[in-house]
Write a structure and sequence with these properties.
By secondary structure, the protein is α+β, with helices and mostly antiparallel strands. It has two domains: 24-213, no CATH class; 237-319, no CATH class. Helix content is 23%, strand content 22%. It contains eight helices and 16 strands. It has helices at 2-18, 49-56, 61-67, 115-122, 129-136, 179-185, 190-196, 359-387; strands at 34-42, 47-48, 79-80, 85-95, 98-101, 106-108, 149-151, 155-156, 166-172, 210-216, 237-241, 246-250, 259-262, 291-294, 297-306, 311-319. The strands form five sheets. The chain has a six-stranded mixed β-sheet with strand order 8-5-4-1-9-10. It is globular and about 70 Å long. This is LysM domain-containing protein. Keywords: Membrane, Signal, Transmembrane, Transmembrane helix. The chain crosses the membrane at residues 368-388. Residues 1-17 form the signal peptide.
Length: 389
Amino acid sequence: MGYAKVLLGLLLVTALAATSTTQTKLKCSKEGAKCTALIEYVSPNNTNITTIQSLFQVKKFRNLLGANNFPTSIPSDKNVNAAEKIRIPFTCLCANGTGVSNRKPVYKVQEGDFMYHIAKEVFSGLVTYQQIAEFNGVMDPSLINPGQELWIPLPCSCDEVNGIKVVHYGMLVDAGSTVEGIAEQYGTTSGTLLTLNNMTDPSELLAGQVLDIPLPACSSHVSNNSLDYPFLLANGTYVYTASNCVKCKCDSANNYTLQCEPSGLKSTNSDWTTCPVMQCQGADGLFIGNKTSSGCNQTSCVYSGFTSQTILTSLVTESICPVPSSPPAPSAAPAPSAPYVPSAPYAPSAVPAPPAPSAAWRIGFQGLGWNFFLFISIQLIFLSLHLFQ
């Protein structure tokens, strides 16, 4: 039986080593900075949105809906199909040059769990089992016990990109994806994606990799002494803030300007029996979300944050009249035409070679091989236990 235990340990270590993936660490240069980040979760089986909320310990159900731009009327038991993608909002903390989720989520080990399964299956490969072991001080990843709590360090960042504040989105790369295609999809450049993700060549892209995507964020007037500062909201999302009293959304159709209004919900602040008045001073009748126009000027009452005592507002005036265009510059005199030179004899162009499959495509199929190896290894483990009983 002692030989069987040794063989079991060797097989398990070999299987884990063979199926390990590159650890994802996203750059986050400002030590101690905190921000809201997003990450893509792919459900391994049929579930519902409340179960996902509980798994990732998202505090507010409505903000999970907002991160995915789901209607607020969606029930908490909304079905989520296997392989369906859900965006998870969480707080990112920068430390030691990288960003990880701020001590959440915490996973409680279940009977029969092993660390590779937790990383690859339960959390869909957003972290590796080596990262879970490192951040939790687990010396031997094969030795975990039911009831043990493990912090899952989701990768993230709070850095500006090209001098602009953004919301960092950790996207799981699909097999067949390319850096150029992803950049076009999210309105960025291949060069930006390569720099953000410490890649020197697009061929380094791997299927299943967590790729850092900078999502444009709406500009806001939230004060730096507000409890929700820095207030960054990605395009196509909404959030409830100011103790549930204010709903804000970001929409590129509104020129990436934050739009906020009273939520109409009950306050979650125990000191507020009702939500504070959200009226702007110096403008009769203007509350958060209201606008008034006079000539070419439009004045808006905007959300500026909140404290434990009140909700902050401010008046913003901007011109809404179109800027007159400048008259076209006179055209230059045409240059004299060049003398006629006979063209070279026609030569048929070479037939282009078919494009090579992307790295993500190749690694996607390699992953199938590792999964098969893991399956065989597990079968050998059970066989060895049977033979040496």
